[in-house]
Amino acid sequence: MDKKVTVYSTPTCPYCIRAKQFLKENGVSFDDVDISLSPERVDEMVQKSGQMSVPVLDIEGEIVVGFDIGKIKAALKL
User: Fold this and answer.
1) In this structure, what CATH number is given to the domain that contains residue 30?
2) What is the pLDDT of residues 1-36, one digit of tens each?
3) Most buried of 9, 29, 34, 65, CB within 10 angstroms?
C-alpha cells in the first residue's frame, strides 16, 4: 500500500536532498513542496510541524522534522 507522503523542502537544503533520495531509493512516491517557490505553503508546513526548518515530511499525517531515518522508516513501516 502506498502511503501519502509530502516533503516540504528547499533546493539548497542538503538534508532535504538526502531525505528525498532515501524515499526514492525505497520506492516511496511523494509530493515535493519547494517552499522557496511556494511561500503560501510555508504556513501549512509550520501548522503541521511547529517548525520553520526543512525538511518536514508528512507521512500519512505523521510529521517527521529533519532527516531522521529511524522515524521515517517507522512511519513508512520499512
Assistant:
1) 3.40.30.10
2) 578 999 999 999 999 999 999 999 999 999 999 999
3) 9
Assess whether the previous peptide bond of 55 is cis (omega < 30° from 0): yes
Task: Give the Cα separation of 63 and 75 in Å (integer).
Answer: 9
Find, among 67, 71, 77, 53, the residue nearest to 22 by Cα: 67
If one counts the domains in the chain, the total is 1
The three grid cell numbers given for residue 24, joined into one nine-digit string: 526514492
- 54-72 burial code (b ≥16 CB/10 A, e <16): bbbbbbeeebbbbbeeebb
The CB-side HSE value for 78 (13 A sphere, CA atoms) comes to: 16
pLDDT digits (tens, 9 = 90+) for 58-75: 999 999 999 999 999 999
